[in-house]
Write a structure and sequence with these properties.
By secondary structure, the protein is mainly alpha-helical. The chain has helices spanning 3-36, 44-47, 50-71, 87-117, 120-127, 133-167, 170-183, 194-202, 205-217, 222-234, 237-242. The radius of gyration is 18 Å and the shape is globular.
Length: 243
């Protein structure tokens, strides 16, 4: 194995866990800042700032992807190219699969919340808490937009094909990428309540695996799914504004 291949292998595994580590780092940073400001009473105080932490993690993730693709003589922005020759068939495939993906993104969230808390609104109130105006703007604009450029590209455009190449198993690559995409949510934010950790860590597992299989089958759907992802995160806007 050449040095370049070894570096790519290491980079794939590091990127697999990078977002989880960044979420934890930024929440710890917010907790430290609250301590210095004399406004820290519990770890829960830092949890409300998760949209800012995710946005910052997304920025770092995009920068890392740009550098990693450049090392392979490729371009990060090329993964968002629409293929004109197949745009009709790609849109048709997306429209046919969208009801299933939408259901997998919505119902596990709701059902897990009811099962673990008795009422999904209890989990939602723990998840979305009041923020100052500047942070609310990040939550309703920069957070959802940056998600489309970072989350799916990290797990399914960069990590998944490289793990498949290393392991020789497409199934393992999809499973690992989808699993880590799901688990990362338990750290955005990390709240020391086992019900909340289970809710956040598992709520997107069916969705993540479905998207992984879809992109394994047809990678050129990534730009369409990135747009869908942004719109899904924009759906949280009323809750941020209400908080």
């Amino acid at each position: 194995m050449t040095a370049q291949v070894k570096n790519q292998s290491a980079s794939a595994w590091l990127m697999l866990v990078s977002r989880t580590l960044l979420f934890l780092f930024f929440q710890s940073l917010f907790a430290f800042a609250l301590i210095l400001a004399g406004r820290f009473t519990s770890w829960q105080d830092s949890a409300r700032w998760w949209p800012v932490g995710v946005f910052l993690a997304n920025v770092i993730g995009v920068v890392l992807l740009i550098r990693l693709y450049k090392k392979e003589s490729a371009r990060y922005q090329d993964i968002f190219k629409f293929h004109k020759k197949t745009i009709k068939s790609d849109l048709l495939a997306l429209l046919l699969i969208f009801p299933l993906i939408g259901a997998l993104g919505f119902f596990p969230n709701l059902l897990l919340g009811r099962w673990l808390f008795g009422d999904s609104l209890i989990a939602l109130r723990m998840f979305i808490q009041p923020l100052p105006l500047w942070a609310t703007i990040i939550a309703v604009v920069l957070f959802p937009v940056s998600q489309g450029f970072a989350e799916l590209p990290v797990y399914f455009a960069y990590v998944m094909p490289r793990i498949e190449k290393q392991t020789g198993s497409g199934w393992a690559a999809v499973a690992l990428s989808g699993l880590f995409l799901s688990i990362q949510h338990a750290f955005a934010p990390l709240v020391f309540d086992y019900r909340f950790i289970l809710w956040r860590g598992l709520m997107f597992l069916p969705f993540a695996l479905a998207v992984g299989f879809l992109l394994k089958w047809r990678p050129r759907l990534l730009p369409y799914l990135a747009i869908v992802h942004i719109l899904m995160d924009f759906s949280l806007t009323p809750y941020f504004l209400g908080a």
